[in-house]
Amino acid sequence: MTLRTLLLSPAPRRRAVWLAPLLLALGGCSALDGATQRLSNLGGLVTPYRMDILQGNVVVREQVQALQPGMTREQVQGILGTPLVASVFHANRWDYVFVFQRQGQAPQRRVVTVFFEGDRLQRVQADELPSEEEFVASLDTRRRADKPPVLEASEEQLKAFEAKAPAPRPAAPAPAPAAPAATSYPPLESR
After folding, report:
1. Structurally, how many domains does the chain consist of?
2. What is the Cα–Cα distance from 83 to 56, expressed in whole angstroms?
């Protein structure tokens, strides 16, 4: 007897006998989700790598300050770049959206909306934006504050390196150039 016939059988007791364990088994799958999550990262000691997600246009405070009412759409696009959202239904509005997600940090989300009247800039509405320097500093949070390594070798280090390096091998003589092979091709057209 197949599972389908058992589930569709007219006897309610048969259905209940098979349906109850099936529902319990499916319900147990969600309870195992937390246990598998704890096992996958060894109790929080090891975390999986999640790559940074950068979407949209980076717009900083200096760019918005450079916008002046009356600028053309081309001038605005030259300063802010191509808008992320330029809707046919809202032809007088461009939206610049920026989202940055990094593991272990709160996601950053900023929206700048530019309104036009005809072909001229009317006004700009923006979230609080960082300066370019502040934005770049927020990206470098993983770097350590250690001083950079010295990229120069001392005289002693150079002499030690030369002593360890194998002696150069003599160059092998260059092979003589091969004579071109005589080739004969059949005619392209028959006469």
Report:
1. 2
2. 9
Amino acid at 96: Y
The CA-based dihedral angle spanning residues 10, 16, 20, 21, taken in that order and rounded to the nearest 10 degrees: -80
Token pair belonging to 131: 């300066």
Query: Quick check: is 83 in a domain?
Result: yes
CATH code, domain with 109: 3.30.1450
Residue 59 vs residues 79, 98, 118: alpha-carbon distances, Å: 9, 8, 23
CA torsion sign for 11, 16, 21, 26 is positive
Q: CA angle 90-126-54, nearest 5°?
A: 90
pLDDT at position 125 is 93
Residue-wise pLDDT tens digits, 81-122: 988 877 788 889 999 999 988 887 888 899 999 999 989 999
Q: For residue 101, what are its two tokens?
A: 């997600």
DSSP state of 43: G
**What pLDDT is attached to residue 75?**
93
> Is residue 107 included in any domain, yes or no?
yes
Asked if residue 68 is part of any domain, the answer here is yes
Least confident of 4-18, 54-68, 152-166, 171-185: 4-18
Range of the domain at 135: 53-139
C-alpha distances (whole Å) from 35 to each of 22, 27, 39, 44 are: 21, 14, 6, 12
Distance in angstroms (rounded) separating the CA atoms of residues 191 and 97: 71
